[in-house]
Amino acid sequence: MYVCMYVKRDTNTKKKKKNQPMRALTYIKSAFPTDIYITAFGYLFHAFWTLHKVPNDEGILREVLSEIPSDFHLDCFNTTPSSSPTSGGGGGGGGGGRKLFTPDQVAQIMAATSAPEVKDTLKARVDEALKRGAFGAPWLWATDANGHGEPFFGSDRWHWVYDFLGVPHREKASL
C-alpha cells in the first residue's frame, strides 16, 4: 500500500529534521490560554507564508516568537468579526508595541521544545492522526457540536468542513 509506505518514509525523513515549531505550539497550547495559542499559531502561519521566515531553524523560531505583537490576529482564525487595525489579514495593530511573549517566556518555550514530555505529547498526537487515517496535509479531524467527528483532506475541501460544522460560509465560485 503506497500511502503507508510514504507515511513511514516521510515520518522517518521528518525525524531527521527538528520539529521545533510544532513542539513550541504543543507547549504553548498546554501552558498558555487558548487565545495566546491561537495568536501564536496564526503568527507562525503568517511568518512562514507572508514574511517568508521559515521557523524550522532555532534562531528564526526564537526571533518569530519574540516579535509576535500581542494584538496580532488573522481574520481566518477569529470567531467574531473585528474592526481592529489587525483585521483583514494580520499584522501588528496599535497594541503599543507589546509583545505576546516576554523574553523569559520565549526562553521557556524554546527550552520546552527539547523536553521529553512535549516530544511525547506531539508524537502521541501524530500517532493518533495516523491511526485515524491522516496521510498528507492539510488533513484534519473536525468534531461538530454533537461530538461527531469526521476526517477531511485537501485545501479545496474547506466548504465541506464548514458544512459539516454548520459554519456559515460563501460557496465556492469560479473566477
Structure explained in plain terms:
With 175 residues, the chain is mainly α. It has a domain at 18-115. 50% of the residues lie in helices and 6% in strands. The chain has helices at residues 2-15, 20-31, 34-49, 58-67, 103-112, 116-132, 158-165, and strands at 139-143, 149-153. It has a two-stranded antiparallel ribbon. Helix 2 (20-31) packs antiparallel against helix 3, helix 2 (20-31) packs across helix 6 and helix 4 (58-67) runs antiparallel to helix 5 (103-112). The longest helix is centred in the C-terminal third of the chain and has 17 residues, at 116-132. The termini are far apart.
Question: What keywords describe this structure?
Answer:
single chain, 175 residues, mainly alpha, two-stranded antiparallel sheet, 7 helices
List strands and helices in order, with pairings.
Blueprint: H1 2-15, H2 20-31, H3 34-49, H4 58-67, H5 103-112, H6 116-132, E1 139-143, E2 149-153, H7 158-165
Antiparallel strand pairs: 1-2
Helix pairs in contact: 2-3, 2-6, 4-5
Short description:
The protein is mainly alpha-helical and 175 residues long. The chain has helices at residues 2-15, 20-31, 34-49, 58-67, 103-112, 116-132, 158-165; strands spanning 139-143, 149-153.
